[in-house]
Write the C-alpha cells for this entry.
Amino acid sequence: MIERVAFEEEIIEVFKKLPKESFELLLRNISIREHLENLWKKYEITGKVKKDEEFSKIFDEIFRFFFRPLEIFLAGEQYFKYILPKPDVIRLFESQRELFEAYEDFILSLISHMRITSEILMGFTFTETAKSLTESFVKKWWDFARRSYKIELDSYRIASEYPFIISKEASNDLFKAAEHWSEFRDAFFEFKEIITNTYDQSVEEFIDFANSNKIESFQDFSAKFAGIVAKNFDVMIKSEDYLKAQRKMLDNLMDYTYHTRKYFESILESSPLNPFATISQMDEAYKRIMDLKRKVKELEKKVKELEGKLEGVENVRKS
Amino acid sequence: MLESLREIEVKPWSCEYEIVDEDWLFKLLHFKPKKKRLLKTPILIAYAYINRPYILDLHERVSVVRRMLEAGLDVWMIDWGYPKRADRYYEIADYVDYIDYCVEKIKEERKVDSVTLHGYCLGATLSVIYSSLYPKNVRNLVVQAPPINFHTDNTLAVWARNVTPEKVSRALGNASGDFLNIAFLLVDPIRLTVEKYQALLDRIDDPKFVHDFLYMDHWIFDSPAIPGKVYEEYITRWYHRNELIRGEYEVRGRKVDLKNITMPTLLLVAEKDHITPPECAKPFYELIPSKDKLMLTVNKGHIGLTVSSAAHKTLWSEAIRWIVERSK
C-alpha cells in the first residue's frame, strides 16, 4: 500500500516533467512489459506460447494512442443526435416539457438564494449607504430582467421546426458533415481492421517462431516479438489497401470537421444576436493582414533601394 | 523505478544567444562568440519549419552550435517560431524572403559580401532555393539531410503523395503539431512507440541514457504547427509534383535553377535516414555544377546525424573543418 502511494506520487512528478505523449507512451510500455513478462513466464515453464488475451492487451496498449484521437471524432455523432430534427429528439423535448419547467423553477429559486446570500454578505462588508444603493439596484435589475424576459410561448415548438429555422447553407453543411462522418466511420473501421489483421498475423508468426525455437531470455523474447510485428507493419503501411483506407479516413475526417464548423458558423453568421466573429471571418482578416504585410515589406525594400540609388547620385555630385 | 526520470530537468539551448530581430513569427538569433577573433564569414543556420532548431544545440555534449563557436565561427540562426491560426496564410516565399532579410542584415552588420548558409532538413530545401536565387550572397552552402528530390519510396514520402493537403488546411487551418506527431509516429509505430520505450525501461538506471532520451523526446514532441498554406505548397509542389529537382519551382515568379549552385557546397547525409533518405539528396549533389563540393555520410538516422556521438566524432569534425577553411 505504501509502495503504491509512493509510486502514484512519483508518477505525478514524472508527468510534470515529461511531454504528455512521452508520458502516455511510457505508461503504456510499462503495461506492455507486464503483459510480455506474463507471456514469458509461461514460455519459460512450458517452452510454448499460446495465443491468449495478453496479446490483445498488448495490441490495445500500442494502438489506443493512435485510435483515441480518431474515436474522439467518431463521437461527433452525438452532435448530430441533437442537431438533426429526428422524431425521437422532438418527442424527447415534448415529453420533457414538465421537467424543463421544473428546472426553470429550480433556477429561479437558486437565483433568489444567491441574491439573499449576497445580501447577507453585503450586510457584513458594505457601508450602510452602499448597502442600500446596491440592494436596490440588484433588486430592480432582477425585476426588470424577469419582467422583460418572461417567455410565454411553447419553446419546444421551435425545436420541432428546426429545418425552417436554419439557413439553407447551414442545412447543406449539416448534411455534408453527416455524409463525411459516415464515410469516415467506415474508413476508420477498415483502417482498424487492416491494423488488427497485421498484428494478428504477426502474433501467429511470433508464436510459430517461439514454439519451434528456444528463446533464452526475456530480452530476446520481447525483442523478437517487437521485431516481427515491426517488420510486418513496414510492409502493411505501404500497401495499397492501407494507403487507400488511410486516405479515405483522413479526407473524410477533414471534410467532416470542415462542414461541421461551417454549419455552426452559418448559424452564427446569420444570427443578428451573435456577438462573435467566426473562424472563417477571422481567417479572412488574417489573409488581408498577411497580404498587407507583404506589400509593406515590398515597399520598404523599394524605399531602401531608392535611398541607396539617391546616395550614389549624391556621392557622384559631390565628387 | 521512475526516479531517474524525475531528476532530469530538460533545458535545451546550451549556448547563450540574443534575439537580433523579431518579425512577428520569425526570429533571428545570434550566438555569443566563444573566441575573441572570429572567422571572417558568418554562418547562418536555417532549420526546418517542422520541430525546433535547438536540436543543433540540444545539450552540451552534442551541440553542433557549440562546436562551431569553439572553432571561431560567427553563428547566427533563424527560429521559425510557433505558427498560430493567424499565420495560416504564410507562404514558402515568406520564409525565403526572411532568409534574404537575415542575410542582408548580417552582411550589413559584419561588413561582408556573403555568408555561409547552413540548412537542415526542410531548412536545407529553403537554403538551396535561396542559394539558387541569390548565389552572390552565399559564399558556402552546407546542406544537412536535404529533401530536394521528393520522389523516393520511404514511407513518409509515399504517405505524403497520398494526402490531400487542402482538406487538412481547410479543416484545421494549420497542420497542427498533434496532427504531425501522430503521423510521424504512425510511420513506424512499433519501433517508435514500443521498441524505443522498452529500451528506456531496460536502461532506466543508466543516467546518461535517460538524460539523452528525455532531451530527445522533449524535442520530438515540441512540434510547432505548419502554416496551412505552407503545408499545401510543400506537399503539393514538392511531394506530389517534385518541382524542385525538376527545375519547375518558382518563388514570386522567379525560377529556382539548381544550376546556380556554383558556390562551395557541403552535403551531409545520414545513411539510415527514414525521413529524408540519401536518395533525396544524391540527385541534387550530382546535378549542381559546383566545382568545390563534398558529401559526408554517417551510418545514422535523420536526427542521429546531429545528436549522435558517432556523428560528432567523425562527420562533424570534418564538416566544421570544411566550413572553417572556407570562412577565412
About this structure: DSSP finds 13 helices and ten strands in chain B.
